[in-house]
Amino acid sequence: MKQLFSGPALATFAAAAVMNVSAVLAAQTSITVGMQLEPPNLDPTGGAAAAIDEVVYANVFEGLTRYQADGSVAPALAKSWTISDDGLVYTFSLHSGVKFHDGSAMDAEDVKFSLDRARAEDSTNAQKRLFTGIASVDAVDALTVKITLSNPDGGFITNLAWGDAVIVAPESIENAKTAPVGTGPFTFSRWVQGDRVELARNPDYWGDAVALEKATFKFISDPTAAFAAMMAGDIDAFPGYPAPETLPQFEADPRFRVIVGSTEGETILSTNNKAENLSDVRVRQAIAHAIDRQAIIDGAMFGYGTPIGTHFAPHHPDYVDLTGGSAHDPAKARALLKEAGAENLTLSLKLPPPSYARRGGEIIAAQLREVGIGTEIENLEWAQWLEQVFRGKDFDLTIVSHTEPMDIGIYANPDYYFQYDSAAFQGLIEDLKLATAPADRTRILQAAQKQIAGDYVNGYLFQLARTGVANARINGLWENAPTQANDLTGVSWSD
């Protein structure tokens, strides 16, 4: 066999080969993750968009507790805690040696600052209700925090696991929207707005080091472009993949793994309960009966999704199947509209960018048209939706997935964007906060589900499935989504 290289040439070739192999191996400590929506900012304590937590939860910011992949809540910055016999005083012991990414120490004063800020009268925290039961927060010493509640709250430890409850520092919070500083295993590198956010491994992380040296979140709103980017290898994983119709192609390709799981995302036809034409429960009930859930799941989600009849996740043990109370019945819908004197309605339908909303909106518009309700569809970008719909309450109908875990309590807030104001429901949520026995909590949660279903507060469509695609060599991505997160702390590549 003829020798192609000898002497110096062979040595040069061998060195180049080693360098190439090293480069390939080094590349496997980075990951590019696709996301359909770009976050409006990067401060999870000051914004409602799920995309914020999808970038920073567990990666950049940490709370006293945290959600794990299986939905359980585990210690995070708090290594342990005790609860007083009356259920009012929680004493947390913090991990020692924890530093923020700017090098400053994280201690009990930062916990006090974070929670006091979240519950302050002028707080902009999107889930301020999580903290309303806190009477006081005291820094006992540098590593001990005492939180006193006004009343016992069986869900308090879970509340602290939300992204809205992460621990921040007063020195860096003013710039958190564009340059977040947390305690997590990844540090913020840069945000190229309109394109990507880059993170780097934190060399001074207090906990177990992560396998990845670099993580990039790439924003691709168009489903066709998302498919092309995955196929080309420009994206390594797309946990919330926006083109479910193409999943069979990935399933047939050994380079990829399709990941289908559940989410906490109740996808609803959100209804402005104080709008002139929608304050009558008969009109809302008519809309509910005009909706064919399965047609929406098949047409907008290509069969991925579970029908729901209330704002509660079907995989939760306390779920009640109430879909029968708003079954597809166009004749009943038309009769209710006639009874309410609302036979020729035209309603605004403002849709955010996700494909479930845009596709679902067209289907729902056709279904409403069949019973005599016209719609004026307006497609909004995410920032517009937050400004007009979520904050401005300037809408009749919209479609959105509420991806926060166990968030039925939002219906107790009359100022929330769908403006449901029920003293009876508010009383149920107050009772829930006081209940600690599992049987009592189940009874109250089931009553709450029935109340909002019976009041037809919103059109309840389906539980959003988590359909993802990833390089087959990637390990550790969450299958289910117990909270809105792309947690990269356990992600690695196989050789």
Task: Present the secondary structure layout.
Layout (H helix, E strand, L loop, with lengths): L6 H21 L2 E6 L14 H7 L8 E3 L5 E3 L2 E6 L5 E6 L13 H12 L14 E8 L2 E6 L6 H4 L26 E7 L3 E6 L12 E6 L3 H10 L4 E2 L8 H5 L4 E16 L9 H10 L2 H9 L4 E2 L22 H10 L6 E6 L3 H16 L3 E6 L2 H10 L5 E6 L20 H12 L3 H17 L4 E13 L2 E2 L16 E2 L2
Parallel strand pairs: 1-10, 14-15, 14-16
Antiparallel strand pairs: 2-3, 4-5, 5-7, 6-7, 8-9, 9-10, 11-17, 12-16, 12-17, 13-17, 18-19
Helix pairs in contact: 7-9, 8-10, 12-13
Describe this structure in words.
There is one protein chain. By secondary structure, this protein is of the alpha+beta class. The chain has three domains: 30-38 and 178-261 and 466-493, Periplasmic binding protein-like II (D-Maltodextrin-Binding Protein, domain 2); 61-175, Alpha-Beta Complex (Dipeptide-binding Protein, domain 1), CATH 3.90.76.10; 264-465, Dipeptide-binding Protein, Domain 3 (Dipeptide-binding Protein, domain 3). It has 13 helices and 19 strands. It has helices spanning 7-27, 50-56, 108-119, 156-159, 223-232, 247-251, 281-290, 293-301, 330-339, 355-370, 382-391, 423-434, 438-454, and strands spanning 30-35, 65-67, 73-75, 78-83, 89-94, 134-141, 144-149, 186-192, 196-201, 214-219, 237-238, 256-271, 306-307, 346-351, 374-379, 397-402, 459-471, 474-475, 492-493. The strands form five sheets. Strands 11, 12, 13, 14, 15, 16 and 17 form a seven-stranded mixed β-sheet that branches. A four-stranded mixed β-sheet has the order 1-10-9-8, with helices on one face. Strand 6 (134-141) and strand 7 (144-149) form a beta hairpin. Helix 7 (281-290) packs antiparallel against helix 9 and helix 12 runs antiparallel to helix 13 (438-454). The longest helix is centred in the first third of the chain and has 21 residues, at 7-27. The two termini are 32 Å apart. The model is unreliable at 1-26 (pLDDT under 50).
